[in-house]
């Protein structure tokens, strides 16, 4: 996104230093991003939700990691930011466990954001394979389906990305790069439609 001309900010439930989990520094893109002093500082000094004006953003992305299951699912402040960005014709994206952040978002029409949309996330089968199905507070696949999502998936730990009505979701860490590309494609569509 950065190389496409978009500025990136980071928000976390409490602000401050965000935990970084399983960050592969052998990946040249990760390394370049991490070595960028501006973005490294932004990760180490994330904004609080109260410091974010949704009007200033065209997209929001929920990063993955198991912590998202506890940190994002019931965070009404970040959900409100995402709702406003989406309702302002913006893009909402999430990968792996990041869709925990979108599972409970209700739009102004009273429907869940995911209701009637093709979505994917870390699957029940993947959760079993990592032996955390009894640790997480809920199974993400089940909860998305319960809130009306049309859940799509591939074999465990294979890349799978779904885009539906400015909502971009990826199944697992293997899908992260493609989620970024799909999100950029959605943003480019929006730019064309506003010109």
Automatic annotation (TrEMBL):
GO cellular component terms, semicolon-separated: cytoplasm
Gene Ontology terms: biological process: methylglyoxal catabolic process to D-lactate via S-lactoyl-glutathione
CDD domains: GATase1_Hsp31_like
Domain DJ-1/PfpI: 4-185
Domain of life: Bacteria
Gene Ontology MF terms in the entry: glyoxalase III activity
SUPFAM superfamilies (alphabetical): Class I glutamine amidotransferase-like
Keywords, sorted A to Z: Lyase, Stress response
N-terminal signal peptide: none
Family as reported in the entry's similarity comment: Belongs to the peptidase C56 family. HSP31-like subfamily.
PANTHER family: GLUTATHIONE-INDEPENDENT GLYOXALASE HSP31-RELATED (PTHR48094:SF11), PROTEIN/NUCLEIC ACID DEGLYCASE DJ-1-RELATED (PTHR48094)
Protein name: ThiJ/PfpI family protein
Species for this entry: Algibacter lectus
């Amino acid at each position: 996104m950065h190389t496409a001309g978009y500025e990136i900010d980071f928000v976390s439930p409490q602000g401050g230093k965000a935990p970084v989990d399983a960050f592969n520094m052998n990946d040249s893109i990760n390394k370049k991003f991490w070595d960028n002093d501006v973005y490294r500082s932004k990760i180490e000094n994330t904004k609080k939700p109260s410091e974010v004006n949704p009007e200033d953003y065209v997209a929001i992305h929920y990063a993955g990691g198991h912590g998202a299951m506890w940190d994002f699912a019931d965070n009404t402040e970040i959900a409100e930011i995402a709702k406003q960005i989406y309702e302002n014709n913006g893009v909402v994206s999430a990968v792996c466990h990041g869709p925990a952040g979108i599972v409970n978002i209700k739009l102004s029409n009273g429907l869940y954001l995911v209701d009637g949309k093709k979505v994917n996330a870390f699957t029940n089968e993947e959760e079993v394979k990592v032996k955390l199905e009894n640790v997480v507070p809920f199974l993400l696949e089940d909860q998305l389906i319960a809130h009306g999502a049309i859940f799509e998936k591939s074999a465990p730990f294979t890349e799978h990305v779904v885009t539906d009505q400015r909502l971009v979701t990826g199944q697992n860490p293997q899908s992260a790069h493609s989620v970024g590309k799909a999100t950029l494609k959605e943003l480019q569509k929006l730019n064309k439609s506003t010109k």
